[in-house]
Each structure stands twice: as C-alpha cells, then as structure tokens.
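Below is a filled-in request sheet from our internal design queue. Each sheet records the structural input a requester submitted and the sequence that came back. We keep these sheets so that new team members can see what a complete request looks like end to end.

REQUESTER: design group, bay 2
PRIORITY: normal
MODE: inverse folding
CHAIN LENGTH: 287
BACKBONE (tokenized):
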C-alpha cells in the first residue's frame, strides 16, 4: 500500500519533521509530538521513500518554502481511490508570484518548472507582473470572476462600495467563472494535465481559479473528492492569515469589519463543488 505523508521541512533544509506516531514506525526517536527524518543533502523539495510492514511511505514537504509566497505548494502526492499515488514534484500551484525573490526563482527553476499558467486578467497581471527567468515560459489564460458585482472585490471593499462578502457571494462568483470562462478553465486544465515537465498554475490568491483547475487535474488522476477538498482547503491554512493581517488595517480604515470578509479570503467547499458540477465533471474527465 502506498501512503503519502505531508511533512514539514526544517529551517536548515536538513530534516523532514513528521508526527511522532509515524516516526516510531520508521524507527525514529520522537521529540515531543514530532520526529525528525535526517536528509542526506539539504534540499527545498526532498521526497523520501520508506517501507514498513508492507506499507510504502512517500514523505515530502507539500509547501515549498519561498520568501515571496506562502501558498506555493505541490498539488501531487495524493492517494487515488484505487490505492495508487499521484506523483510528487510534477504539478504545482501558487498565489501570484510578484514578490518572489531571486533566490525564490532559483528554487523554482531547481524544481524543473518550465511553464507557468497565469490565470489572472490583464489588470491583475499588469499591476503585479511575474518576473520569471527566461528558462520558464508564461502562458496567460485570463479568467475574470464577478464577485458581488465587482471584478476587483478588494478595491471595492477598500473604496467603500461593499462592506461584506459572504458564502453566497463566493458561490455565485464560482458559478460565474464557469459561465463566463468555462472553456478557458478547461484549456488551463488540459495544459496543466498534458505538459511533459513540471508545471505551475497560479492566479492572485491561488485558491479560486487555481483551485478549480487543480481540482480537475486531481480528479482526472483518480484522487477522491474528499482528498481534493482537503488539498483545496490548504489555501486557508497557508494564505488566509497572512492575507488577513495585510488587509486588516486598510479594512478598518475603510470602516469594514474584517470578520465580514472571511468567506472571501478563505476556501469554500460548497463553491468549488458547485463549479465542478456546473462544468459537467463526468464529461470533462473523459476528454
């Protein structure tokens, strides 16, 4: 049986930290709730294989540690419904890349990524362009979502045009993405699925447009819907708090209660499910 394990990479890149219970199975000495698996060489993206009692563990850090992005992560490493493992280190997802440092781009190149799918529309990409090295091609597939009557919901909040974004508004936006850009989403999915080298897809937050494309790819690989939603929810873990802390002072200055935007900056399972249903999932996966 193949079992993927999401681990945390130590700051010095020399250890993968796993739960103590797994560490005990692997013969590691637990230190409190964790155990450390020593790496032969420092790496930003190690994948370690261990076998215990007929179970093969594939241990990797899902989130790639970059200075300029908190939500840059591996979309693979998921177990399929028939027990296989979707390969690690071939398909990545992220928020916008405008803050990536020179060191970050070196790490991206080291991952073997040679194509980036940018799902942002013109204003987004124009204000925050990706400065990728020449070895990486950027394919732009502009996808625009209408949220609460606005293309740029963040500006609408800070300009006082709206004062809240709830679950219903997010679900409507996801359905609008499918209605207005269904073919663009499918194009992005097919490019993401069929590229022969490691590939990255991103939008601004890395959770909505990107979330739909990655979900389609994971489902096409046989990953269970439950695991797809688990992966989708990681954007709330990696992106929501940093984004909230960034926006909070400006929201307060605009007299917007920060609690009113929780649905906007976090993931919504029902919204993703509605978008996938609207795309006629069974037909898409037969493509």
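RETURNED SEQUENCE:
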């Amino acid at each position: 049986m193949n079992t993927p394990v999401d681990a945390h990479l130590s700051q010095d890149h020399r250890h993968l930290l796993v739960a103590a219970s797994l560490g005990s199975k692997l013969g590691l000495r637990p230190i409190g709730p964790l155990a450390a698996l020593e790496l032969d060489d420092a790496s930003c993206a190690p994948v370690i294989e261990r076998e215990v009692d007929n179970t093969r563990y594939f241990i990797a850090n899902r989130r790639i540690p970059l200075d300029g992005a908190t939500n840059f992560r591996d979309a693979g490493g998921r177990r399929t419904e028939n027990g296989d493992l979707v390969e690690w280190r071939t398909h990545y997802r992220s928020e916008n890349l405008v803050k990536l440092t020179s060191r970050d781009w070196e790490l991206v190149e080291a991952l073997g990524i040679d194509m980036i799918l940018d799902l942002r529309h013109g204003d987004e990409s124009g204000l925050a362009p990706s400065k990728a090295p020449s070895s990486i091609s950027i394919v732009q597939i502009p996808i625009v979502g209408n949220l609460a009557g606005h293309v740029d919901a963040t500006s609408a909040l800070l300009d006082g045009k709206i004062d809240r974004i709830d679950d219903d508004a997010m679900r409507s936006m996801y359905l609008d993405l499918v209605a207005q850009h269904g073919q663009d989403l499918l194009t992005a999915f097919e490019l993401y699925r069929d590229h022969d080298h490691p590939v990255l897809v991103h939008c601004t937050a890395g959770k909505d447009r990107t979330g739909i494309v990655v979900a389609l790819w994971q489902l096409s690989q046989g990953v269970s819907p439950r695991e797809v939603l688990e992966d989708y929810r990681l954007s709330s873990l990696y992106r929501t708090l940093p984004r909230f802390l960034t926006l909070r002072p400006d929201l307060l200055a605009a007299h917007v209660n920060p609690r009113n935007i929780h649905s906007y900056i976090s993931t919504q399972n029902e919204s993703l499910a509605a978008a996938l249903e609207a795309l006629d999932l069974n037909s898409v996966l037969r493509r």
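SHEET NOTES:
- The chain has a mean pLDDT of 93.
- The chain has two domains: 1-61, 62-285.
FILED BY: M.R.
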